[in-house]
Amino acid sequence: MPEFGLFIGFGRAVRGRERQALAVFKEATEYYARLQQQGEIEGFEPVFLEPHGGDLAGFFLVRGDQDRLARIRTSDEFRRLNMRATLITEHFGVVGAGLGEQIATQLPIYNQQLEELT
Question: With a threshold of 0.85, does the pTM exceed it?
Answer without folding.
Answer: yes
